[in-house]
Amino acid sequence: MAAAQAVEEMRRRVVLGEFGVRNVHTTDFPGNYSGYDDAWDQDRFEKNFRVDVVHMDENSLEFDMVGIDAAIANAFRRILLAEVPTMAVEKVLVYNNTSIVQDEILAHRLGLIPIHADPRLFEYRNQGDEEGTEIDTLQFRLQVRCTRNPHAAKDSSDPNELYVNHKVYTRHMTWVPLGNQADLFPEGTIRPVHDDILIAQLRPGQEIDLLMHCVKGIGTKVARVASPRLDTSSREVFRNETLKKVVRLARVRNHYIFSVESTGVLPPDVLVSEAIKVLMGKCRRFLDELDAVQMDW
């Protein structure tokens, strides 16, 4: 009985000890354990696999993915982070920048601004294309000049009262339609997700005048640390001499908690569905490669 329990623990549990973690590798492959049929079976997988949505709102989604191998769960996580397409600032044409923010730093800041535009409505720009078109590029203009406020009180020291346009926000970005984009997208739909993101600060006489080109692409997006829903599996309990003798920490190997937070460009459920499509596309390409290798033989 004890031997059977030990085998089941090795197969199903990751054990957190005081000085290390045991059973971290998947071992339930065919023939590894006597008396267990670990051959992959689609019917059994469909029976055991499930996705339980715990919470969903406009910008966040939390769900459990149960009955999946760690490699697949991690692939899904990495796709969510880095391979779901989005529209982002790719090129910045600086006509004039007399602020204290260097051109390169300013361009990097602009590239981090989330753009409210559905990437599914655009195509990838062909490599080598210098000029964008209405099907693959969004264009924004940022032109702000700081001046003194002639109506400010003489004894005032508040920059908000002394100066006009001394803070450059994303609300100063103006969409410049290309081709027939003005007919395809209603006014106000193409814009920064948030209009209160601070880009730079100016003083009288300083000016920022530039043009931004947004294209469809992939890349690591904003990654945030979210509070755990249940427990972090902290091993602090082992610091207590009494508790560490009676407490045992373990986690279910094939149960994963996903917390998806959107930047506001797409709803979180759409991000998940797009990540699934990317994963399915990778699987199809892999199968095509296998078929090609078999044909060569």
UniProtKB/TrEMBL annotation:
GO function term, MF aspect, one: DNA-directed RNA polymerase activity
Q: Which Gene3D superfamilies match?
A: DNA-directed RNA polymerase, insert domain, RNA polymerase, RBP11-like subunit
Q: Which residues form the DNA-directed RNA polymerase RpoA/D/Rpb3-type domain?
A: 60-289
The record's principal subcellular location, in a coarse class, is: nucleus
Keywords from the named record: DNA-directed RNA polymerase, Nucleus, Transcription
Quick one: a GO biological-process term for this protein?
A: DNA-templated transcription
Keyword Nucleus part of the UniProt annotation: yes
| Record bears the keyword Transcription | yes
Cited CDD domains: RNAP_I_II_AC40
User: Its GO CC terms?
Assistant: RNA polymerase I complex; RNA polymerase III complex
The subcellular location is:
Nucleus
Q: Which Pfam families match?
A: RNA_pol_A_bac (PF01000), RNA_pol_L (PF01193)
Coiled-coil ranges from the UniProt annotation = none
The similarity annotation says: Belongs to the archaeal Rpo3/eukaryotic RPB3 RNA polymerase subunit family.
Record protein name field: DNA-directed RNA polymerases I and III subunit RPAC1
Q: Which organism is it from?
A: Monodon monoceros (Narwhal)
